[in-house]
Write a structure and sequence with these properties.
There is one protein chain. The protein has 345 residues and is mainly alpha-helical. The protein is built from 17 helices and 2 strands. It has a two-stranded antiparallel sheet. Strand 1 and strand 2 (116-117) form a beta hairpin. Helix 5 (85-108) packs antiparallel against helix 9 and helix 10 (210-237) packs antiparallel against helix 16. 50% of the residues are buried. This is Octaprenyl diphosphate synthase. It holds the Pfam family polyprenyl_synt.
Length: 345
């Protein structure tokens, strides 16, 4: 069980949504979705079954939306004719993300994903890993078809960094001595790198100057960090509907996230002993221990301060777009930052 905590939002708009951004890229996303369906096809029946189980489960598709949006922000779009580089790269980004989710659920032994039974529960760990590999292969095929070596370099480098982040997380798993800097390095690699790459390839396709490419990458990186920090807080202070998985999964899986890092650092000897017992030795007495964890976090404002840090990175994401002139797309991208923070309201 979880306890819904009201986080006072001091900066972002609590009414923010992705509606404007989704509307602006709706035509491109229709093409992305069609491409995703076509590229999951295989004569091996289990491949489309496993892939579509997750792909069709209602994710926000935020990463491919950002690829289309930053490409359009930088002038790549209908005016350039029927080129589909942005669509193929957006689909590649979504396939990369889906592959990491399939792999993550195996590593984390998760039972739920996006409110549904995880693919590994339905088809087994082996199928989940191998279908994830198939999606990565399809992603790289589409990248090559686009014909931009720079975009291929960005996304292939991101794939390597994400894998490094996964290994870093394994190293930090159950280690209550993990520092805030060490944890931020993990989420920068594991989560934010794909946000950054998704936003960077758009201006690269459009042939924009380095300053605009760097600005879009900075926007994506900081948005990705903020997004993950909010997720960390929601795992303890949200609801299953917010997360698409069970509240408290991070706790049960022994994950060291920022609320734990802050609580451990600020806690008493008795509280640190609690974290060592539950997270390091995995001696969890289910609901009672989760409630105790929440109580410790409340005592030390760990959830509120995690959200405050998310606002900090959100502000940097907004600042990154300052060099672009005012436009509906820029405003929609700025609102996307508010939306990511406001999920914690």
């Amino acid at each position: 069980m979880g306890v819904v905590l009201p986080f006072e939002d001091k900066s972002s708009d609590p009414e923010a949504s992705l509606d404007a951004l989704v509307a602006l890229v709706s035509g491109g996303m229709d093409r992305v979705n069609a491409m995703i369906l076509s590229r999951t096809g295989s004569e091996v029946t289990m491949i489309p079954e496993v892939a579509n189980h997750l792909i069709s489960s209602g994710g926000k598709r935020l990463r491919p939306i950002l690829t289309l949006a930053t490409a359009a922000l930088c002038g790549y779009g209908p005016a350039e004719g029927e080129r589909d580089g942005d669509v193929k790269l957006a689909a590649s980004v979504e396939f990369m993300h889906t592959a990491t989710l399939l792999h993550d659920d195996v590593v984390d032994e998760s039972d739920m994903r996006r409110g549904k039974v995880a693919a590994r529960i339905k088809w087994g760990n082996e199928a989940s890993v191998l279908v994830g590999d198939f999606l990565l292969g399809q992603a790289f095929k589409m990248m090559v078809e686009v014909g931009s070596l720079r975009a291929l370099d960005i996304l292939s480098s991101a794939a390597a960094v994400i894998a490094e982040g996964e290994v870093m997380q394994l190293t930090a798993a159950k280690n209550t001595e993990t520092t805030e800097d060490e944890y931020l390095a993990v989420i920068r690699a594991k989560t934010a790198e794909l946000f950054a790459a998704a936003c960077e390839v758009g201006p690269v396709l459009a042939g924009r100057p380095k300053s605009e490419v760097a600005a879009c990458r900075s926007y994506g990186m900081n948005l990705g960090i903020a997004f993950q920090l909010v997720d960390d807080a929601l795992d303890y202070g949200g609801t299953s509907a917010d997360l698409g998985k069970n509240v408290g999964d991070d706790f049960r899986e022994g994950k060291i996230t920022l609320p734990v890092v802050l609580s451990f650092r600020r806690g008493s000897d008795e509280e640190r002993a609690f974290w060592r017992r539950t997270l390091e030795r995995a001696e969890i007495e289910e609901a009672r221990d989760l409630d105790t964890a929440l109580g410790i976090m409340r005592r030390h404002r760990a959830l509120e301060d995690t959200i405050e840090r998310a606002r900090h990175y959100g502000a940097m994401a907004r600042d990154a777009l300052a060099l672009f002139p005012k436009s509906p797309m820029k405003e929609a991208l700025l609102e996307a930052v508010d939306f990511c923070i406001a999920r914690a309201r």
